[in-house]
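Example record

The entry below shows one chain as it appears in the dataset: sequence first, then structure tokens.
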Amino acid sequence: MNERTSTAHVVNVPMAPHWNAELTATVDLSRGEFAAAVKALRKRELAAIHEKALAHINEVSGVDVCTWITSLTDAVVRCLARRAFLGSGASLRDYERWVAVCAIGGYGRGEMNPGSDLDLLVLVDDGRAPPWVAAGNQELQTLCWDVGFQVGGSMRTLGELDHIIREDFVTATAVIEGRRIDGSPTVERKLEDLLATWRRKRSKEFLKYKVGELEERRAKTGASLFLMETNLKSNPGCLRDIQLLCNIAFVLYGGRNLLALEQLEVIDRDDLAGVIEATSHLLLIRSLTHFHHGRKHDIFQLADQLRIAKQLGYADVSRLRDVEHLMRRHYDLVTKVHRTVELTLSRLRALGHLGRRPLLILSRRVLDPDFTSVEGRVYLNDKAAFWQLSDVGLRLVRLCRTAQQRDLRISFELQRLIRANLAVLSEEVHRDPRIGRLLLDILGDVGRVKPILSDLHHCGLLGILLPEFGNVTCLMQFDSYHQYTVDEHTLIAIGHLDAFAREQVPGLTAMRSVWPRLQRKDLLVLGLLLHDVGKYMGRGHVARGAMMVEPVARRLGLNAEEEDLVHFLVERHVALSDASRMRDFHEPSFLATFTDRIGTVGRLDYLYCLTWADAKAVGEGILTGWQEALLDEIRAAVRDEMTRRAGGEPVGRKQRMVSELVGAGWTPEAVERWMADLPHTWQYQVQPGEGRRHLGVLEAARNDGIGMEHEDLDTHDLLILALPDRVALFADVAATLTGHTFDIIDTRTWVTASGLVLYHFRLGSPLLGRVKDAQAWERLRTDLRKVSRGELQAGTVLARRRKAYGVATKPDSAFDDPAVKIDSRTSSQYTIVDIHAKDEAGLLSTLCQAIADYGVNITYACINTMGDVAVDVFYVDRQGAKLSDTDSDGLRRHLIATLRLTSAETAT
């Protein structure tokens, strides 16, 4: 079954023939009437194009839609140009003698999307131009703005343009993409001659500039093809890369037809067909996105992906959502573009188009009878005979191990050959134990695993060796938390282990002591490679992934103990992360059960390293210093528990905390009083350096009714707050923070025996400069005091959020499946409430109020935000006791009803 509802061939839907007639009829109108009439025509016809594109969505291509828009734009610009120049005193004959009105840039390429800028060049013949030329150009620019174009226009003589493009390659790029819309054919021919001369003289410098531009673009936007929210223009494999290929074709062969690149001898017709298909795909998505937003909008956001997947007729198939099928195709297409770009650049360097032609013989190294390396890349010696050998798979994997040991990469040419011959490999690689041992050797060489593993993956060979990993190729994780596809996330995680092994990143605090004790780093990397393979079937990936370990272990020749370790890593890969963020892991009953599940110190150390690499690879800035500290803390807690069970005595956390606080200036007596007042878990949950701040704000709250301290950090703001406890205080505090346009990223709370509540918040704000505004903090302090005393309604403060200007919206994953789970077994004292819900402004306040309204007390909370999903955990009781089964079910129903009501109100 195809995931799309239609696979009809691409057709051109004929456009309306009345444009020219309507535009001609405007000739006698006054200027204001003329501009209004043309603007109305353009707006109407763009709407008609949008309607036609949607009506024939699986019959038209992105090129078709852009051609329609470009044709409309040509007709309008031609009309404007004639009105401007002829109205400024030119005769038609003089106009067609002196001036060529040219489309350049994206407009020149015929790739006009609804929100594209209008790039115009008024090109004037050399000589003494008549005065109407300047006046006509000025009027043309003004008319373009009047009818609604975003104009990028300039006027140049041929001589001026010749001088400019010799050094200004930005202008040169736009001009070589140009075409005449109206005016002088003679000037157009002279421009063609000028560009031919320019090609002969400046091609090498221009190509070097374009390659540098590509490298700069990748440095700015990232080198990954597999971002969840990609920029349709500038990300790798997208429109800018395709335009680069067209520019290379022009410079080398005089035309922008991509088929000319076959002359480079490494690019074949299939490569170019993939680029052409990707072009149409990207242009269609870009047009649909522009139409929907009513403006230029080049970031393919999650909400856009959902909408366009439905517009294109994708369906939920094989447990994957329609949007996941769309994005899998998207990533496949941009990958084809990227490979073609890399093959082209490799060939340009070899042929000397980017500088002096390299003496390849100097870097040539024969690796074995089958393979040779040139300039750090591995090539196949005999392309025909090799694939007839009986042990092709073994030779390829052995070559990959050799390349890894010598820090070589597999050439794009060889990768393409491997992809084309994968069918001959599958049976051999699954029955030859030598291949399994070689793969383990590759995985165990930590410090240089990711490069060779990436090459193995991109040529498809890794998917043959490990079909389980091949299933997640280009598979998106549709949420606003993960920033990469499953396979890219996994390779990035392995790259983090490489970087740690090379001492390029510090890792977690204990990793330097733990790392040397890991005897089987190959099994650690194998566990990381398999940790998310269950995601190809949707939710429940942890259990499903663990079930896939056994066949992998059998193929790789692992013994029972080795298989058991890999199974443990896959089955428990989220355990440390989840427990550190969503449980009071120092509570004795939870800690005892959790330690049982970990088993041994050795397993704990493997899991600790895997968890760091996995969490760090979710996305840039996702793993915060706070979360790293929590991972260190839970490892220490579990290790201490294991030490106690072995009859040892771990270093006392309480004594360390007392020493720290006395060192900060508190008397031992004051420290003892406060620690007796705080819940016993506080001393385990507080991080080094936080205790003195906590006691400071508690002291202030006792004396003044409020204690508050904040600090502006690099990625967030820290707020420590203490207030007298009362019913629904947490709800009101959360509402007040939200009303002051702060976003609560995560929270820890404690209630003292003397009736104070201590909050430790990590905050962000969508308003730039908010966290640096001293007056904003003072206003927050004032409102918190009033809300605490009942002098101000928190709902009134919360309402300000809806009126705030400049508040950016988060990426929207359309998460519409709130979940509430209630657990009365894990904790010996409290009932634990787990809530996953769409994060909205005021959600935390709503949840806390709902819990209070049900007559339940919150004693501890772990508040987390994962993209646009709130993952909140509350430890609750009723009159000092856990909830009964009846009360637990009632609270769950009450919270679900609250969440649904909130969602409905937000939607309206």
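Notes for this example: Residues 1-15 have pLDDT under 50 and may be disordered. DSSP finds 40 helices and 16 strands in the chain.
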